[in-house]
Structure formats: C-alpha cells, structure tokens
Amino acid sequence: MTKDFLRPHMGRINGHPVLMVDGKPLILLAGEVHNSNSSSLAYMEQVWEKADALGMNCLLLPVTWELTEPEEGKFNFSIVRGLIEQARRYGKKISFLWFGAWKNAQCYYAPEWVKTDPARFHRAQVVKGKSFIYNSDFYDMPYSSLSYLCEETCRADARAFGRLMAYIREIDSGEHTVVSVQVENETGLMGAAREHSDEADALFAAPVPQDFADYMHSHRGEAMDVVKDALEKGKASGTWEKVFGDQAEEIFSAYHIALYVNAVAEAGKKEYPLPFTVNCWLNKPGEAPGSYPSGGPVSQMMEVWRYCAPNIDIFAPDIYVPNFTEVCEEYTRNGNPLYIPECATHGYAGARAVLCVGRYHGICYSPFGFEDMGEPFTSQQMVLFGADVTDPALQTPQDVEVYGKLNRMLGSMMPLLTEKYGTEDLQASSGEISDTAAFEMGDYRICASFRKKAGVCLVLRVSENGFYLIVQDVSLSFQSANPEKPGIDILALEEGAFADGVWQPGRRLNGDEAVLNTYEGPAMLRVKLFVYS
Ligand code: DGJ
Predict the structure, then answer these.
(1) How far is the CA of 122 from the centre of ligand 1 (A)?
(2) How far is the CA of 116 from the centre of ligand 1 (A)?
(3) 185 Cβ closer than 6 Å to some ligand 1 atom
(4) 379: Cβ–Cβ under 8 A, 6 or more apart, which residues?
(5) Quick one: which of 10, 82, 140, 231 has the fewest CB in 10 Å?
(6) What is the value of pTM for the model shown?
(7) How far apart are CA 417 and CA 88, in angstroms?
(8) Distances in Å between the alpha carbon of 400 and those of 27, 51, 60, 248, 373?
(9) Ligand 1 center to residue 164 CA distance, Å?
(10) 482 alpha carbon, distance to own chain's centre
C-alpha cells in the first residue's frame, strides 16, 4: 500500500462515497465541542472524557484564525499540536473546523489586525454605505461580516489556512489523527440577499460569467425546484437578473462566497489534501435569503457551490430543524455523502445517529455542544441553536447512557456496516419517520413497530438468512417475502455484542421472548431465519 492510499481521503464502497482512513472506511461517530472549549487544552481534558463516555471516536474542534495568526505573518500552532496529542492519548480522531473569515455568517474569529483595518479588509455592505447593522430578521443582533468580494481578505485567509494544513501535514501525516477539515463555518450574508457596495452593484449589473451560466443551465435537472424554475424562465446569458430571475441575488452571493472558500481550500489542499467540508446554516421553509445566510451551501445553492468550489468534497448540513429526514434526503442528492457536523442533543439524537448510518450510509454524525448532552436546553440555548421551539423533541434531552450504548454498538460493527454501504443489505427506520417499518431483504421481511418516536431499528444482512440488528423501543416480527415459500422459522435469535469484531452471544431468546419480540433499551441482536413451503 502506498502512503497516499493510507492518508484520509474520499473513496467508494459499492459505488457509495466513504471516508477512507488508513486504507479502511471510517464512520465518524463524533461530537462537536462548544465554540470556545478547544481554545484551552486544560479545559479539553474533561471534554475528551465525556466523548469517551459517549462512545465517540472523533471530535470536531474549532481552530481559529485569531489565535493562529495573532500578528500578521506570525503563526502559533501550539493548540493544534496539543489537541492532536490529546486525541492520540484518548484514541480518537479529529476533524478541525477552520474559523476564518466566516463564523455563523459573521467575522467574529478574524484576527484583530484584520478587524481593525477595514480599508484593507473590506466589510460587507448589507445596506449601501453601511457595514454594521442590527439584524431585524435575527433577534436584532449586531451584525457585520467581511466582504466576499475582498481579494485581500481572501488572500490572507487562504495563506493562514495553508499554513495550518502544512502544520498538520508536518506533525500528522504519519499518524492520521486528523481525518477531515471544515473550511470556514456557516458562510453567507445576513440582512440582505447580496452585498450592496458600489463594486457589488457593478458586478451584479454586469453579465454573468458565461462558463457559469452554461454550467447552471446544463445542470438544471440536478437543481432544486426553485432554481430549476428560475433557469427555465431565464436567459442563456446576460445580467444576473436576466439569467437567474428571482434567484439572482442569492446565486450571486453563493457564486462569490464559493469562489472565496474554494481559494482558501485550494491553499490548504496544496499543502495537505485531506477531505474538506463546508457546513450550512439551513433555511426554514418560506424564509428569504438574508434571514438565513444568503449564499451559503443551502441545498438550493448546491449546484453553484459544486461548480465554484471543486476543492470542497462534502456539503454538510447543521440540522437543528425538526424535518431531519427531509434535510438528509436533500443533502444526499447528486452523490453528496451525508456528513452531519452539527445537530441538537435532544431526545432524538441517539435514534438519528442510527438513521444516519443505517438509512443514509452517512460519514459523520456529530451532535453540537455534546458536552451538555443529557441536560435540558435553556431558552437562551434555543435561540443560539436557531431551534424550532414547536418541536417537542427539543424539550427532552437525550439520555447519555443510551447514546453511549448506541454509539458503541455502531462502532463495534463498523467494518460490517461499511461493507454494506451503498446496498439494500443495510437499512434503518425510526418512530420519527413512521410508526412502523418493513425491511425487505431477499426472501425476508423484517417488520418493526415503534413504541416511541425515538424508537429505532437498524437491520444489517450479512448472509442469505443471517442478520444483525440494533433496536430500541420497538417490537419486531419476521415474515417471508417469498410467495413460493410462505412459511418462516426463527432458527436463532440472540442478544449479544461485538468485542474486537467477534460476536459474543448473550441470552438466547426463544419461547415467550421470541413471540413477543419487544425491546426497550438499546440492544443488539443476531437473527437466523428460514423460509419454506
Ligand atoms: C451553528 C454554528 O455553526 C456553531 O458554531 C454554533 O454557533 C451553533 N450554531 C449554535 O450555538
């Protein structure tokens, strides 16, 4: 095996995209820390401990431009080194999050020398002539961001990111502790659909670059409906409004932001080509661009990002909204793998981890602020999370013990699971999706009836009649799916667990237990079935 083959990179299994690390597919059963925690190595000790208790194999950790380059051209990577050393000590992987020009569509983490020199590092004009507003669409929060059109900012951001990646290569290319990197954090512009400086106005009134207009037109079949409709009505060339109609302003922002992020990513890829992601502050139905960050990688802007940012491998949703599965469907369109860098720690967190793996064959599932998992949300946290307070699940915290068990079950089966990525032999559903589910696999139909919304069932078929299941709050029944062999027997049903890849049986379930087939807390089952006529 060559060294390149061992380096974390995107690969395919059964045609399905996977993250390969050390020559093997790896599912990141991860957690993202609160924004400030990875700035202190001492503070992080307790965080690694909690991650361990929750069965996590990877942490998503911010690295900030302000601490990395406190003075222009003078870099300090001591925290990066310390975090990598800690991860190795705890036997975990890291995905770093580069908080550069953008963090939640603002510029909180730009260094002082950037923030204090607006003549060189231009701020975005949300309103003509104004680079600072109180955002009436978002809790009247003070708002300012760096301009996506400022080449000087992009150059400085890219240089710092390039140095970070060179440093990671230097200390980690032999060990592969760092497995992926997020470029910027929740990019986009708040308060308006596009910038309004004279420069922005002039660019918006000018023709759309023809290569981009051509690409969008030739890929309109892949676009979400709103963009497809706009393209169908729009012209083949001309100004942004002529080509993209009512989507013009958001597409204009997405085009420039994606080009900016691509340039930053390119500087990093040249140094050390790890898989790169971008995360997205999602829009809610009916929201106008600017109420959510306009130009970020929301699903309707994905084609724009795909064209403008080829150095980005994965578009990743931060899911705090109730329609979890809808978002998962949108972010697995056109071959994008499901990578969830942020989601809430409410009562569906565990079941959704199982869905991410079993239903979507995802690469990463990572509750945000997992340090607080198990504690109810305060109203302030609800605001911060942009949470939909009408979702009752947000009022109920995830049970940490249950989460740890589910995560450890998924982790213990990893090679078996990833072997079946991209196939019908790995399926899952939950009570959040429907009260019942039927998994058809070969001659068999495994039926699940969920006792709670957070009930979940993952089915993995490993041989013609052999299955492993992860279950929680569910009743099961087994049926024949072969009309010529309608009879079915359970040849073997047992609880158990994998230890070092080997199945360790627990109770053999038969008699009443096999008839009732009802499970509360998380359990792993091995099942052997038989159909006959
Ligand atoms: C989304 C951001 O990406 C995170 O860094 C964090 O700010 C959460 N929102 C909520 O606190």
Answers:
(1) 24
(2) 24
(3) yes
(4) none
(5) 140
(6) 0.97
(7) 25
(8) 20, 11, 19, 45, 6
(9) 22
(10) 38
